[in-house]
């Protein structure tokens, strides 16, 4: 007995649909894996850059303390000033000169510089307010972060001692 063509197609449809769904699932899984790999690579690079920034900050602070003594926080001072210089240099190299690829901006400025010093970001944001002639906002940022930061530190000390 011969099956008509319609019957054959009807019998094959579940297999074809199953194979299509299987290949769709594989294709989708590969796309998700590729995106995860890209995200994980960026996260890994951020973490490595952060680790390097942390280690350099520690090494430089210890070196300055050894060279100049413990009477003044030379390590922090050096890291903050050097961090501002490096932030400015890296920003220009990426944004204006194109010497470094743009995708490195987050890795270097957030990963490395974020671990090395956040003071450089603070100063960079202040310079943006200067460029935009936002003098009131500049004053609020400079005084606010420094004065409120100082008070917040001591509030943390007080609350930490209460518990």
Automatic annotation (TrEMBL):
Task: Provide the membrane topology annotation.
Answer: Multi-pass membrane protein
* UniProt keyword Magnesium, yes or no: no
Q: What is this protein called?
A: Fluoride-specific ion channel FluC
Gene Ontology terms describing biological process: cellular detoxification of fluoride
Species this protein is from: Desulfonatronospira thiodismutans ASO3-1
Report a single Gene Ontology molecular function: metal ion binding
Free-text function comment from the UniProt entry: Fluoride-specific ion channel. Important for reducing fluoride concentration in the cell, thus reducing its toxicity.
Tell me which family the UniProt entry assigns to this protein.
Belongs to the fluoride channel Fluc/FEX (TC 1.A.43) family.
Q: Which Pfam families match?
A: CRCB
Any one GO cellular component localisation term in the record = plasma membrane
Task: For this UniProt record, give its keywords in alphabetical order, as a comma-separated list.
Answer: Cell inner membrane, Cell membrane, Ion channel, Ion transport, Membrane, Metal-binding, Sodium, Transmembrane, Transmembrane helix, Transport
Q: Which reaction does it catalyse?
A: fluoride(in) = fluoride(out)
Transmembrane region positions? 43-60, 72-94, 106-130, 142-160
Does the entry feature the keyword Transmembrane, yes or no? Answer: yes
Subcellular localization, as worded in the UniProt entry = Cell membrane
Q: How is its activity regulated?
A: Na(+) is not transported, but it plays an essential structural role and its presence is essential for fluoride channel function.
Give the source lineage, highest ranks first: Bacteria, Pseudomonadati, Thermodesulfobacteriota, Desulfovibrionia, Desulfovibrionales
Instruction: Indicate which residues the UniProt annotation says bind Na(+).
Output: 114, 117
């Amino acid at each position: 007995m011969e099956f008509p063509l319609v019957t054959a197609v009807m019998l094959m449809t579940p297999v074809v649909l199953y194979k299509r769904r299987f290949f769709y699932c594989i294709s989708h899984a590969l796309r998700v894996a590729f995106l995860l790999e890209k995200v994980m690579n960026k996260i890994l690079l951020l973490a490595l850059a952060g680790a390097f920034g942390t280690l350099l900050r520690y090494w430089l602070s210890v070196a300055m303390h050894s060279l100049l003594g413990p009477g003044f926080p030379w390590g922090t001072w050096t890291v903050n000033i050097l961090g501002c210089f490096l932030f400015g240099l890296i920003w220009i190299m990426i944004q204006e000169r194109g010497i470094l690829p743009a995708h490195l901006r987050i890795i270097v400025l957030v990963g490395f510089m974020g671990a090395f010093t956040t003071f450089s970001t603070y100063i960079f944001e202040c310079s943006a307010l200067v460029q935009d002639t936002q003098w009131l906002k500049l004053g609020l940022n400079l005084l606010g972060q420094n004065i409120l930061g100082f008070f917040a530190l001591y509030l943390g000390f007080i609350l930490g001692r209460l518990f």
